[in-house]
Sequence to fold (476 residues):
Amino acid sequence: MTQELMLAEWNARESIAEAMIPLIGRLYRESNVETSIFGRLCVKNSVINLLKSHRYVRQIEGEELSVVDTFPVLERVVEMGISNAHVDLGKLAVNFRKQGGGDLGAYLAKELAPAMESEENDGQDVVLYGFGRIGRLLARLMINRSGADHSLKLRAIVVRKGKADNDLEKRASLLRRDSVHGSFNGTIQVDEANEALIVNGNLIKVIFASAPEEVDYTAYGIKDALVIDNTGMFRDKEALSRHLQSKGASRVILTAPGKGVKNIVMGVNQSDITADDRMLSAASCTTNAITPVLKAMDDKYGVVNGHVETVHSYTNDQNLIDNYHKGDRRGRAAALNMVITETGAAKAVSKALPQLEGKLTGNAIRVPTPNVSMAILNLNLEKESDRESLNDYLRNVAVHSKLQKQVGYSNSPEAVSTDFVGSRSAGVVDALATISSGKSCVLYVWYDNEFGYSCQVLRLARQISGCTLPAFPIEG
Fold:
């Protein structure tokens, strides 16, 4: 193909992608319909990222897919008038092609029939208690998907009053700029008079308090709020229950492993949640990264036992330079050393997967990178496997199973840690690093211990708030 033809083809696809953007936005704002390409969200995406999502299908699924295939699907979805659903345009386009084509309208009418009967949700008021690394990412994620009334509504942030006179401006600046995740995609204004931030048109009250029970959320028009505690200070049931003493708070999620409360890893044990649960833990970033992969492995091959070694980016609880620290080794300079430390993630897996109780050991090494970590799963299995079939199974899990949002898959020979910054998966299997021999295997799982974990927290928040959208096409 000549240069002129290649450029003409690119321009044609870019033009189609540009035409898709307003339709995707309208579906989301007016009908509460999220769209994706094999799990990659299209909502509020750029033209280039939309085109890249189609390219991803070729890399992972081995299928050629372009906007030429998905645009007709999108147009029909708009015409159908469905609402309150998550529609994967890529999967619908590929499945339609695999069945031999025909009448696209009839095919979609059959596949999306249940979406015609979906119920609306009034949304959920959310309060972020704490505004650190995870808190600010949760804010970004909620604000980015705040265009429809159905969604999680970030109403307030609770923090301790800082010593600086320009406290609000400093909070806004931390939300606006991030050395790891880049600049915030939107506008942020500081409303000093009302002690609030106005972010992409959303008014977010900043409440200064030193204890959970001090806050009266109803005074700010907030009721039946879901409080997401990302301070890490209230980790047991008694301490966490202090949030429920606040007027206007009805439920609380802890963004750390919790004692005396259910630890939920979305994709694995969310069925354990009952209507009576008022306090839940979203477990740890590492537990979320490894548990879905371990579930997939146990379902097919059976896990006899194993060891989990995490290579984890340094965190705020370590010292930048050598200084006193109550923990062993964590007092040494984080950006200069690899630091051996403990992790409870391996044992915590059994809270979501009871069948693995006592079968896993674990350790951790903190390394001089600010974000993205890796878990190395050294497993002994009940059934034999080989590298090719094992990888093929995990690829299918990542693309077609109910663990699609949790398990990612990479087969790039050049992938390194920074390539996984911003990954929405709880963990991403590096297929080229897989080792398999008989009944033993070693799996390498990347995870954005900040962003990927934050996505899992919000999946839990949507689940207990009734804001999770049914996904189409229905797998299996």
Summary: Residues 285-449 form a domain with the Dihydrodipicolinate Reductase; domain 2 fold (CATH 3.30.360.10).
